[in-house]
Amino acid sequence: MIVNENVFHHDMKEESKFARLKEYGELIAAILSGILILIGWAIQLNQENSPAAVFFFITAFLIGGYAKAKEGIEETLAEKKLNVELLMVFAAIGSGFIGYWIEGAILIFIFALSGALETFTLNKSQRELTSLMELQPEEALLVSDGKEVRVHVSSLEIGDLVAVKPGERIPTDGEILSGLTSIDQSAITGESIPVEKKTEDTVFAGTVNINGSIIMKVTKNSDETLFQKIIKLVQSAQSESSPSQQFIEKFEGTYVKGVLLAVALMMVLPHYLLGWSFSESFYRAMVLMVVASPCALVASITPATLSAISNGARNGLLFKGGVHLERLSRLKVIAFDKTGTLTKGEPVVTDVKISEHANESDFYTAVLSIEKQSNHPLAKAIVSYIQKEFPSIHPHTLSVQEKSGFGVSADWKGELWSIGKPVIENDENSDMTAFGLEKSHEGKTIVYVKNESGIAGVLSLQDVLRPEAVQAIADLKKEGIHTVMLTGDNHATAHAIAKEAKVDQFIAECLPDDKVNQVKSLKEKYGHAAMIGDGINDAPALAAASVGIAMGEGTDVALETADVVLMKNELTKLKKAIEVSKKMDRIVKQNIIFSMSVIALLICSNFLQVLDLPLGVIGHEGSTILVILNGLRLLR
To answer: Comparing C-alpha atoms, which of 551, 182, 174, 101 is closest to residue 347?
Structure first.
């Protein structure tokens, strides 16, 4: 079973490569079709009914229409029902059959271009899963008979012992048997600050061991880990069809059947019922095929979508498709990840209190000298703070040792200085411990500095709010959008950040599947819900949301999974994104109503025999041009 899973992962990666080649192929075919149409049109300007021009138009037919014609035929055979792809091909062939090759070729070109964009969107989920799988560790250091052997993760079994060195990723879910360390769990829980782990603590696959060697016992098979659950959640969420998509698919079949039935009836009934000649009936049927084709409907959406996407790109917004823009305009609630989204994603020193018995210069010099030699994120934050606030203080070279249960220590001026957790026994520095407890209740991480006289000082650190976060939340509230913060952090930390950001609601201690469930609950309550995040752990929730929004500096998985990307990490751009989406929604509705009205008018005029093919072409293509121009207003 495990071997089959590895084969599946390999096949997924290969299929992803093939899907990308298919995308490029369809786009190139559409562009080449357009170039051939321009060449044929230029020839026809100089020589009407030129065989050379017809040759170029037919070639544009074949190149641009091949992919969609093949797709339409295969889908029809498989599902036993007609589709828009076939109707577009029939309409193009019908226009050519009565001598209007350029009209048919343009019809094919527009449909081929929209088809290439559709293929890009549909293949997105494949790339997301591939990106996730590339982050999963492939090897583990198996401990057997006192020896360490590198093995493939898939060969691990429950109960095996695995060694994990500093800097390595945890290969599978398990329990620590020996060793102390800090684990960066941001990939799973989104916590910005590493979590200290000791014997009997649980560790997750894909998380990073920072500073200590550990021996762990495997508790789950490689295909049952929390990391694998994330992959399955993304896959499941992406496969769910939206109600609007299901409606469009149903409408598509009905529309095609209705048009083809009307064309067939037009070929026969007017001759017998109205006394038309067979040639007139056939001519009117071909005109109907052309004017009833959904060319204008396609043009109603695609140019407006492309214009909105271009507008967004100029404003630091990446939209991955029109359907996401449409949903964005209907949002009633947005769920925010905390770490790296509402906050900067890295701890900073917010408060410092130095004991009366400690010399300030000695305190900062000792702390800087000790922490300078550590790669721990908290140590880096403390070093950065001291170097910025006290540039005249320089670190000294000290012999630093790890002190079990407290942190790190070193001799400074004949005294033992320790930095880390408090070890308090009848401590006389009650004001220092009270300060630490106060800051801890505010959701901050506390670091104690101790020398031989007792607690010399206390530093509190916190992942601070982005400067623009409060304004972004306020803007969304003005739009009537409910705001929710989802985080893997504890309740105290979540409460502090939620209060500062002024979000309407927060939910703490969320694992990836918890975030998915919360997003689904919000969708049930509000109809349309967005999720904005930046980490691997946010990917399932991004996929489950009506609209997934990623921070531009987030992980590759989040960027791949999301429907919208804030390229410059500016939360205030959310308001702009919603404004663009609402404007696009209005324009698309205008275009659809107009194009359907024109089609209805042309069909009626054709039936009343007051519309000749040239006027039908002018009306049909004219309406197409008008809706395109209306859509291009979004470029402003």
So the answer is: 182
pLDDT tens by residue, 282-298: 888 888 877 787 667 76
Contact present, 410 and 451 (Cβ < 8 Å): no
- The one catalytic residue among 173, 223, 337, 463: 337
CA distance 541 to 563: 12
Return the axis-axis angle of helices 51-79 and 2-46, rounded to nearest 10°.
150
3-state class of 204 per DSSP? coil
Ramachandran class of 339: left when φ > 0, alpha when ψ lies in -120 to 50, beta otherwise: beta
- Total Cβ atoms within 10 A of residue 503: 24
Using CA atoms in the order 154, 155, 159, 161, what is the torsion angle rounded to 10 degrees?
-100
Whole-prediction pTM = 0.62
Percent of the chain with pLDDT over 90: 17
Task: Please state, in angstroms and rounded to a whole number, the distance separating the CA atoms of residues 311 and 579.
Answer: 11
Among residues 540, 195, 623, 196, the alpha carbon closest in space to that of 335 is found at 540
11 catalytic? Reply is: no
What tokens were used for 215? Answer: 């021996």
Task: Find out whether 107 and 60 touch, Cβ atoms under 8 Å.
Answer: no
Determine phi and psi for 198, rounding to 5 degrees.
-135, -175
